[in-house]
Amino acid sequence: MAKGLIQRATWRSAILVLLETLLILGAIAGGAYIRLGPASQAMLREENVLLKALLVAYVCQLCMYYCDLYDDIRIAADRRELLIRIFQALGATSIILSLLYYFFPDLVLGRGVVMVAAAITLPLVVGWRLIFMWVSSRVGPRERLLLVGASEAGVALARELHQRQDLGVEIVGFVDGDPGRLEQTSFHPGVIGTIEDIPRIVAEQAVDKVVVSLADARGKLPMWKLLEMRTAGVAFEHLASVYEEYTGKIAIENLRPSWLIFSAGFNKSSWREAVKRGIDVASASVGLLIMAPILALLAVIIRLTSAGDVFYSQERVGLRGKLFTVYKLRSMRRDAEATTGAVWSQANDTRVTPIGSFMRRTRLDEVPQLWNVLRGDMSLVGPRPERPEFVSSLEKDIPFYGQRHIVKPGVTGWAQVRYTYGATVEDAMEKLQYDLFYIKNFSISLDLFVIFETIKTVLLRRGH
Fold first, then answer.
1. How many domains are there within the chain?
2. Shared-domain flag, residues 84 and 183
3. Domain containing 375: what range?
4. Which residue in 124, 189, 298, 461 could disulfide with 173, CB within 3.0 to 4.6 Å?
């Protein structure tokens, strides 16, 4: 997938960025004419004016990115939310440009031009986003899927895809081997035919793919009949592959090891590992150097506001199940687990100190883990390391849980930027599905994507 999901998101975002760059440049030209009149021609002919205008566009689009206006274009469906976020982005753009112009006055385009351009940009971007959503939903690339077997996994996929209209996927319905289940599924459209009806439904409904869960198919579906249809030209796809492609995670319920064995992915190469390690070392070194004064200040505050050591160390499970010691700034009381033993931390955990709550929201408590990255215990990106007390029980309760230890754990990860904070077995299962996806589709570009998303998460203070 990473190909399917990330490339699809990349192309969609690229179209938005390109056309919105042109809109912003046009707004700047219009703002110059409105503000300066005939003198705007002289301004537009100035040397480096295009670079100055592109700087404005870049800052504006960076702020739009941090307001989720490129990650989730479904926001356009809610016009109020769209307006609020664009106002936020333009407000942040004005602040950043004001600071840049104060320290670097040569970057100024013209007195008042940027403010007028901002007023023009708002209706242009709102209108463009609404048009983009309308066009995407009607004439954009759509894939029509027919699901074989009205199982829980199939219904779960149908529901998830139904909520993601921006993906351009349409569920035609289900077919099932039991004629008695016609129109009896909880998802609409429900069961619209039997196995024998597949060729007719494919032709009548212009189906692109027939999606089959092999876990449900064995012993229930007539495989020879499906093979006959396949050789006649009907396109079949494994449900697990479709789920992975469109959701960015691997569904472990009803998953067969054979699918993991024979599907694409899990590609390892020495150069990728070397590049990843180089990024880890460079980033951790620079990060610790930059954060040293802040760490010193936080150490003083922690010592003054609560009893106990400044740093907190704890055993975690790392690569190939090897235990290592992870380091964090202490965010809980010294005796947080004195009576309970090892327990998951919770959202709004009462054991967290006031300064600890701030550090958790800003992720500052995790900065010392950069030392673990330098030591080689961890990577910047990977599955979050878990405590051995929890791993032993999770491996019994959740299939494939041990597979997350075939790579180094990370300070951040695909699961952390795609799933909200949680501390239950169900949350662990959901995060594992994202971790398996990351391990299967590992690439440097995916790592960079996770890092950028993590920066946004920290700046917006999301999560616990």
1. 3
2. no
3. 270-459
4. 189
Residues 176 and 254 placed together within one structural domain of the fold: yes
Phi then psi dihedrals of residue 462, to 5 deg: -90, 165
Residues 149, 122, single domain; the answer is no
Q: Write down the mean pLDDT value for the chain.
A: 82
**Per-residue confidence at 9, pLDDT binned at 50, 70, 90?**
low
Q: What is the pLDDT of residue 349?
A: 67
The residue among 443, 441, 456 whose CA lies nearest residue 70 is 456
User: What is the spatial distance between Cα 456 and Cα 459, in angstroms, rounded to a whole number?
Assistant: 5
* pLDDT of 330 higher than 60: yes
Domain ends where: 237, 262, 287?
262
Which pLDDT value is given to residue 280?
Answer: 95
Cβ-proximal residues to 420 (8 Å cutoff; 6+ apart), any chain: 463
Q: CATH number of the domain that 197 lies in?
A: 3.40.50.720
- What DSSP string describes 371-403? HHHHHTS-EEESSPP--HHHHHHHHHHSTTGGG
CA atoms within 13 A on the CB side of 412: 27
Task: Say yes or no to pLDDT of 432 above 50.
Answer: yes
Task: Say whether both 133 and 149 belong to one domain.
Answer: no
Q: How far is CA 164 from CA 77, 167, 195, in A?
A: 12, 6, 27
Assess whether 169 and 219 both reside in one domain: yes
- Residue 356's pLDDT band, with cuts at 50, 70 and 90, is confident
pLDDT at 2: 46
Which bin fits 382, alpha (ψ -120 to 50), beta or left (φ > 0)?
A: left
As a whole number, mean pLDDT of residues 9-37 equals: 83
Q: Considering the domain boundaries, does residue 180 fall inside one?
A: yes
What is the pLDDT at residue 138? 66
- Give tens-digit pLDDT for 45-54: 776 888 888 9
Q: Is residue 464, in this structure, part of any structural domain at all? A: no
**Which spans in 232-322 are helix H?**
239-247, 257-262, 270-305
Percent composition of the chain: helix, strand, coil (DSSP 3-state, to 5): 60, 10, 30
The last residue of one of the domains, among 80, 104, 139, is 139
Answer yes or no: do 326 and 401 share one domain.
Answer: yes
